[in-house]
């Protein structure tokens, strides 16, 4: 059985697709067979990232490791069982196709609540939730008081994860390993970082997730997207003497992969 990694939250702009592509490429470079799905059927940011990568590699004559991207298959609705949801069937068909030939399947979810995202969360062996270092984003996980210190209760996304955990428990599956990734950190605003850190640690104990380091805010990520590249591809396309920022970003990726503690994965890049 492939290990399913779902990258999701219910807010756009947190870096889900960047995390998905870098994680997928890192695993592929370590010799694992990686497949990927994009459940944002409207924007398809990860799908466009993968498409950009395929075009750049073809044009450049390069063959770099990366994920095998698949679109969700179309389903003849006349063949659905009574009461069966077409999106459930499309996702289950895609996973069933990819599982036999994959060590990992990475599913990138939209930044909104959809049926596909809800079902994907129930399939997750590992759930990665990138979160901007802001109480605006934190509000998706829990409501806090005006000082940002006291947690008043779980919010919409946490409740969806709780429901997914219940469904897995009922099916006799392993619990979801949920990791909240502090992403797009800025160099300043140390007071806010400290408040966010304490709030996340408090919430992690209450609702059961782990906290992992993510990526700092860097221009390089915006520059890589049009070519579908990742930090790990720079040397292969002829970039020599990586600057300090890029070296630091590669270390952030190593730290993230280690933090996920994925089965059979030894970080060697």
Automatic annotation (TrEMBL):
GO BP terms, alphabetized: cell division
InterPro entries given in the database record: DNA_Partitioning_ATPase, MipZ, P-loop_NTPase
Pfam family for this entry, one: MipZ
Keyword Cell division: yes
Statement: the UniProt record of this protein carries the keyword Cell cycle: yes
Keywords for the protein's UniProt record, in alphabetical order: Cell cycle, Cell division
PANTHER family: COBQ_COBB_MIND_PARA NUCLEOTIDE BINDING DOMAIN-CONTAINING PROTEIN, P-LOOP CONTAINING NUCLEOSIDE TRIPHOSPHATE HYDROLASE
Protein name, as recorded: Cell division inhibitor MinD
Species per Swiss-Prot/TrEMBL record: Roseovarius litorisediminis
Lineage of origin: Bacteria, Pseudomonadati, Pseudomonadota, Alphaproteobacteria, Rhodobacterales
């Amino acid at each position: 059985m492939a290990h399913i990694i779902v990258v999701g939250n219910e807010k756009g702009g947190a870096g889900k697709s960047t995390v998905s592509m870098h994680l997928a490429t890192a695993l592929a470079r370590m010799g694992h067979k990686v497949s990927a799905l994009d459940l944002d059927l409207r924007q398809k940011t990860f799908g466009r990232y993968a498409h950009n990568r395929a075009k750049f590699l073809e044009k450049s004559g390069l063959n770099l490791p990366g994920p095998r991207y698949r679109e969700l298959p179309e389903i003849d609705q006349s063949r659905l069982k009574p009461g069966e949801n077409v999106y459930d069937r499309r996702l289950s068909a895609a996973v069933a196709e990819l599982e036999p030939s994959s060590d990992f399947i990475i599913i990138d979810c939209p930044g909104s609540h959809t049926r596909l995202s809800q079902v994907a969360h129930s399939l997750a062996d590992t759930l990665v939730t990138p979160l901007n270092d802001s109480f605006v984003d934190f509000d998706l996980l829990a409501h806090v008081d005006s000082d940002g210190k006291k947690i008043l209760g779980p919010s919409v996304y946490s409740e969806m994860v709780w429901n997914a955990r219940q469904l897995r428990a009922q099916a006799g599956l392993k619990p979801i390993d949920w990791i909240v990734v502090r992403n797009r950190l800025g160099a300043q605003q140390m007071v806010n970082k400290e408040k966010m850190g304490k709030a996340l640690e408090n919430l992690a104990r209450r609702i059961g997730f782990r906290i992992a380091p993510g990526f700092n805010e860097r221009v390089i990520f915006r520059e890589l997207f049009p070519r579908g590249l990742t930090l790990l591809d720079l040397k292969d396309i002829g970039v020599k003497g990586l600057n300090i920022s890029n070296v630091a970003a590669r270390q952030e990726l190593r730290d993230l992969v280690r933090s996920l503690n994925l089965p059979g994965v030894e970080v060697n890049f």
